[in-house]
Structure formats: C-alpha cells, structure tokens
Sequence to fold (280 residues):
Amino acid sequence: MINQHTRLFRPWLVLSLSLLAALLLGSWLHPAGRIVWDALDKATFLLLNGSLTSLQNVPGWTAMWAFTNMRLFDVIAMLMMVSFLWTAGVTFPKAEVQAGTVRFIVLLLFLLAVREGFHEAVHFYGWSRSGPSLVYEPCVRLSELYPGLNPKDSSHASFPGDHAAVSMLWAGFTLLTIRNRWTPMVVLLATFLMLPRLVGGAHALSDDLVGGGFVTLMTLAIATGTPLLRMVSDRVSEWVDPMIDRVMRLLPLINRDTSCPEPSRNDNAAVDGHEQRPAA
Fold:
C-alpha cells in the first residue's frame, strides 16, 4: 500500500499546477496586468449582461439565465456532474465508478479547505470587491425582471468565484483522469455552468478565471499530484462501501416482498368461473 501511494506522488504535476496558479494570481495583482483584467471584466460583463437586452426577443433567453442563477439550479448542476461520474466509461470504468465518485466527493472537501484558506488571504490583503452588476452601467438586473425566482445577480464579495471553482475542478479532475469522446462535452458543460453568474453580474471574468482558477489549480496540485486524495478516499471507501453493499443486498428482498405472488391453480380456476374438483 505504501509503495502504491508513493507511486502516486507526481512532483512535476504539483510544481506545474502551483506555478500556473501563482502566475495567474500574479497577473491580476500586478498593476499592468490588473489594467488588462479590469478591461476584460468590463467588456465581458457588458457583452454578456447586455445580451439580456439585445436578445430579449429570443423566447426564453432572459428566463433561462434567471433560472440558472437560482439556488435550485446549483443542485441540478451538481446532479449533472455526478451523472457523468456514475455513467460507466465516461470518467471511470464500470468497476471504478463507486470508488471514483467517492474520490470526487473527497476532492470537493479539499476544495472547500483551500477556498477557506484563500478567502482568509483575500480579506487580509483587501482583495475582496463587489461584483460587476454593482459597479458597471448599464446593467440589466434579473432580480428585478424575475423577483419571484430570486436569482442571484449581485455580490459584495465576488472574488474568488466559488461556482466557477467547482465547475473547473470537475472538468480538471475529469481531464486528469481520462480523455475520451466525452471530454469535449465535459468542457462545454463546465463552461456553461460558469456563465450564469457572469451574465447576471454577480461575478466578473477575473473572479472566475483568476480567483476560481487559483483555488482549482491549488486543489488539483495537492489532491492529484500527491497520494493524499487517494489515501483519504480509500479510507472513506472502507467506511462507505459496506453500507452501500448492505443496501444493495436489501434491494432483492424489497422487490420480492412487494411483487405480486403468482396465482395458484385454484385462483386460476376461480377466475375462469370453474370450481376445482378433486380427482376421482
């Protein structure tokens, strides 16, 4: 077991992902780079949020973005990710689907830990800021168009983009695990899941790519470049797998108890209207 975990240590992956995360954050913190990112943030917001006006005659366009900015859609998005994990051959072979899903759930916990640490740094250094819907004009506010849906279209602490981090983590985890004919769909879906907050204006482009990207890259560096993720997920699987096996063993009993018994000969005779007589 020790040798197996030792082989999972990939220094080149830890170094490359950490370096990429540092360069990404550094480009945003440097004054010259910040000018470029701020210009991209404004242009992206005016384009995406402006589509709520320019494409308002397209049936369902504004309603779609209002719905995708609801809390309910966050649950739907997670279910879509899990469905990819649970479909054999998409991310894992059939025999590894259960263990791979546990690994991804543990990876989300790693993301939460990294995100909390980064949030502390953001508040300490004063990097926090308001979302573009509170900064730029003109702005179309989905919460005013669809008050009954209560869509999220603003934030007073938009950096980093947490939703984008989850989407990018799922895509990055999938790409590091396997690359097949499903890979383009995973990338496209992850990109789409990042768009609602950008269209609504709760997050700017750099909130997602820089802030969310930094959290994602550091999580992947720690979790997939070292044996840590596999060690923790293996321990969790040792506790979870017996519970799942017991539930699966109960399913045949449940099906057998709830199924209708096969009619006896006497029942068939009664249905046919004939009385069953004893043989002579």
Residues 253-280 have pLDDT under 50 and may be disordered. The chain is about 70% helix and 0% strand. Residues 7-241 form one domain.
